[in-house]
Design goal:
Protein name: Kazal-like domain-containing protein
Radius of gyration: 16 Å
Shape: flat
Distance between the termini: 50 Å
Keywords: Signal
Strand content: 15-25%
Helix content: 25-40%
Number of helices: 2
Structural class: alpha+beta
Organism: Arctia plantaginis (Wood tiger moth)
Amino acid sequence: MNYKIVFLIAVMLSTASTSPLCACGRVYTPLCALIQNEKRTFSNFCEYKCVHDYVIERGGAASILINGVPC
């Protein structure tokens, strides 16, 4: 058995469900959002949308508070 492949699959599975993976650009257009009753600043809408979808998919709450400025 090739243990390198088993290890790689185990790492991929363990990280897949703990956080969202999205390919977002590096354009800085900050926005302040409320994620699970906690204010968070996102660098851009793509990063927010990625976390938003992840949280909503798991039954949580997420909304934009202020667009264009950090929290």
